[in-house]
Amino acid sequence: MASAEHTSSKPESTADMAIAAHDEVFRLNREILDVHGFSTDATGEVLATLAEKVALYPPDKTVREHPQVAFKPFYFFFYGSLQVPSILKNMCGLKSSPIMEHATIKGWKSMKMGPFPALIPADPDSAIKGMCWKCEDAKHCENLRRYESSAYRMEYCEITTDSGKVIENGRVFVTTLDVTHLSEGAFDLEQFKSESYFMLDSDEDS
To answer: pLDDT by residue (tens digit) across 92-125?
Structure first.
């Protein structure tokens, strides 16, 4: 009677585990740069340093000025004060009014952080309405990060415009705070505009 063959998996060696850990760190560092709109061919310590600096607040301009870094334009989704064109224009130092489009993202819930909105993860069908805008310059992204403060971080989102266009790998600012520091409630854009007339162009205060 023939005996059944027994196979056993070979234990992962220390070298294999080290390689796997190195690959994971490499992947995470690339992801950190990518979510902020940067691509790079850097590796090792240079990549690690770039990832560390891009995550700093306030933003470190040495990342966008690094010779091995390129900025990849992407769409932002705004659901708070940056929906107001003149505020976005002023924060980014744009020469003309930004071209924005009404849009929606899903998978997030809006809560309040003082008078401002803050997104937290929610069920896949939970929808947030706002505006989207294409960011073409790394400096504009830096300026918006300064405006939003360290209470927010950039995250990926899928944006669907009111015209039906689906934009993959958009970015949105979500809260870095624990939900215990937030309160229930929705951001009232019209109330914000009525109370912030000094920041608005004349055609936005009504």
So the answer is: 999 999 999 999 999 999 999 998 999 999 999 9
Asked if 148 contacts 78 with a C-beta cutoff of 8 angstroms, the reply is no
What is the C-alpha to C-alpha distance for residues 171 and 157, in angstroms, rounded to an integer?
6
Record the pTM: 0.87
CA distance 196 to 206: 11
Rounded Cα distance between 77 and 110, Å, is 13
Strand partners, 173: 154
Q: Specify whether the CB–CB gap between 142 and 53 falls below 8 A.
A: no
Three-state SS letters, 136-195: CCHHHHHHHHHHHCCCEEEEEEEEEECCCCEEEEEEEEEECCCHHHCECCCCCHHHHHHH
d(CA 206, CA 184): 27
Q: Rounded to whole angstroms, how far apart are CA atoms 10 and 32?
A: 34
Q: What is the pLDDT of residues 31-87, one digit of tens each?
A: 999 999 999 999 999 999 999 999 999 998 999 999 999 999 999 999 999 999 999
User: For residue 13, what are its two tokens?
Assistant: 């060696």
Helix, strand, or coil here: 18? Answer: helix
| Residue 109 burial (C-beta neighbours within 10 Å; 0-12, 13-18, 19+) | middle
Both tokens assigned to 177:
């705070």
